[in-house]
Amino acid sequence: MLKLNSVTVNYGKYSAVRQIDIEVSEGEIVVLLGANGAGKTTTFKTISGLLKPTGGTVNFEGAPINGKSPDRIVQAGIVQCAEDRKLFPQMSVQQNLMMGGYIHRSKKTQLKESLKEVYELFPILYDKRDESARLLSGGQQQMLAIGRALMAKPKLMLLDEPSIGLAPLVVEQMFTSIQHINKDGTTILLAEQNANAALSIADKGYVFENGRIVIEGTSEELFSNDEIRKAYIGA
């Protein structure tokens, strides 16, 4: 579904990502592991069209998308849920969700069905649908950010650090929801520092260090790698 070939991304003279190769097959959950500044968010922004690669290609469903505008990439089926959520704080929960479905605004029946699905996945959002997004807890705001992304009916969802700043119980609930979204047919590319939680639901993963991919493998292979366990799992 998604293939990055030798992708390099520069900020001026600084290479934030250097010749990375990533493959995501339809139906998978794939995780990008690494510390802050390792290159995960830059990779997401490049896939989303917010950054242009200096070298290499990004292909989605067999066609190149590097060079396409972000709105065209959303229309193609890739939706990013940003690390800092990027909610509209003064707007209500439901208004935020409807903004996520903007590209389907002419399909009223589909929007209603999508809204129903989000509320079934996150019932607390239905209870708070008329409240301002800024009044939600951190976990509820993350649910809203994911729900808003789902409103665009993505084929591939990019989730950037969904567990950051959340309590352990909320993190567990969040990853259960991500599994549910995947089982309902959405392919997931996940960037995470919480390796233990991410690898527990992922099919495979890539480990970033200083803009490069240094290790890749199935979740089982990464779990059993002593270096990965010491660096990211604490065992």
TrEMBL record:
One of its GO terms (biological process) is L-amino acid transport. GO terms for molecular function: ATP binding; ATP hydrolysis activity; branched-chain amino acid transmembrane transporter activity. Keywords: Amino-acid transport, ATP-binding, Nucleotide-binding, Transport. SUPFAM superfamilies: P-loop containing nucleoside triphosphate hydrolases. Residues 2-235 form the ABC transporter domain. InterPro entries: AAA+_ATPase (IPR003593), ABC_transporter-like_ATP-bd (IPR003439), ABC_transporter-like_CS (IPR017871), BCAA_Transport_ATP-bd_LivF (IPR052156), P-loop_NTPase (IPR027417). PANTHER family: HIGH-AFFINITY BRANCHED-CHAIN AMINO ACID TRANSPORT ATP-BINDING PROTEIN LIVF (PTHR43820:SF4). Belongs to the ABC transporter superfamily. This is ABC transporter ATP-binding protein. It comes from Robertmurraya siralis.
